[in-house]
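Predict the structure of STAS domain-containing protein.
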Amino acid sequence: MGSLANVNHNVDQQQDIELEQGSHVDRTRWMLDTPEPPSLWSEFMDKSSSCFRAKLQLRSLVLSLEGLFPILSWGRNYKFRKFKNDLTAGLTLASLSIPQSIGYASLAKLDPQYGLYTSVVPPLIYCAMGSSSELAIGPVAVVSLLLSSMIEKVVDPMADPITYRSIVFTTTFFAGIFQAIFGLFRLGFLVDFLSHAAIVGFTGGVAILICMQQLKGLLGITHFTDKTDVISVLRAVWRSIHHAQWSPLNFLLGCSFLIFILITRFLGRKNRKLFWLPAIAPLISVILSTLIVFLTRADKNGILIVKHIKGGLNPSSAQQLMFNGPHVGEAAKFGFISAIIALMEAMAISQSFATTRGYHLDGSKEMVAMGIMNIVGSLSSCYIATGSFSRTAVNFMAGCQTVVSNLIMAVIVLISLQLFTGLLYFTPISILASVILSALPGLVDINGAYHIWKVDKLDFLACMGAFFGVLFASVEIGLLTAVIISFGRILLYTIRPDLMNVDTSGIHALEGLHKKLASHGILLAMANPWSKVIHKLKLAQFVEKIGERVFLTVGEAVQACLPIIKD
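Done. Here is the predicted structure for STAS domain-containing protein.
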């Protein structure tokens, strides 16, 4: 009997083991067979189709629409108190957007009104579809110069402005298509091919290049080079000065108001209550300089002026889009490049301010919003719009609460297009150059480049490659250099992975995580960092930010943090 009981017991144990193994296999198979996460587009279509299958269940349809149009969600709880803050921010934003938009249109080799058009339609679309409360939408310096530097190699904007504009609008359309695709299919990783270091170098190089380009307007030079590299620009400036083909009055007027704008910026930084002063300084400069030229008729003495600016509502440009012909391929290529650069700039700005205010931003939905606004913009005489760092900072400082500040700004610009463009006839070109120059210092991150040099020499190589590529070759070559070095770096770390290291992009991500956690009252601690990692974190001054919360083991970290949790 005893042996029989033992046999039965062994059989039961064997069955239990087989059952456990079988359940383990089932669980493993279930984990491995997990379906791929749905894309934003498939989520929307699934929810929409389920609504129709269930005889249009209203609640599901509303949730689907709120996913694409966040205004339907937060708009229900919008209060008058928020509107007062948004009104102040929108008015302040408009005072900066009007002169900047006119100036950036000249960078894109377009007539001034196209910059104003781009500050009307895209912000209105973003107000309905965007979710960043602080991001200020409109034309920006980097994308404007990138567009003109690429397209003018295909068509001369002076010789054939109609074809040039058609390519600009078609490029904008393709840029919007690519941006929407990136968001719908969650392809935001394509932007990651440009590392943080490459972005710092590329942006700094473009800023200096824009500065050199503005010497034409600041000095009143009429004949200038079409090339964008710094050597060609300096040679053209020297030739004009040497042959007295410049206007000292233009230089004097432009420098005077440039100094005025920089002084107001200094005062605004010293006293945060005067945040509005540097924001309205460009508009004040435009008004005063226009009045001076009109009263003194200085345009007859060599002062170059804007002259006619076409007013009115945005005209349709649908008929100008080119979907056949010799330039379609170039427009698609330019659109892809511009889409990535515009997204890179907007996402970096919006994520930074979202972290500061402590809310989550869905990158895929932001990409879709950017894409739709540029597609619609291309049909209404707008070129590529994205988030502006300088205007977003002003919007934030002015106390914006929602994207309604973009709506108010767009309405003010539209009113200006309807009523006041005729008053800008005598606006000096040198003042527009001064407005652009005053916005450039924020694009040159010298401290960021220095930290990259201290932390990671390979990252610094990518930074300098992009920087010098832009300065001494072209914007496209600089961008290509940045992508090649960044991609080569990814391949190098893939072939020879160093799991015990961290680069500047990783440190940048840690800083963002630290800010996000701090905004929620959560302390960040580190346990068992390797020597290479802690050395680079010290060089980047990240260790100073988290204080004494660096521990040798996880156990020590838990013991040290328990009293804080109990308190």
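Strands lie at 137-138, 386-387, 526-527, 550-551.
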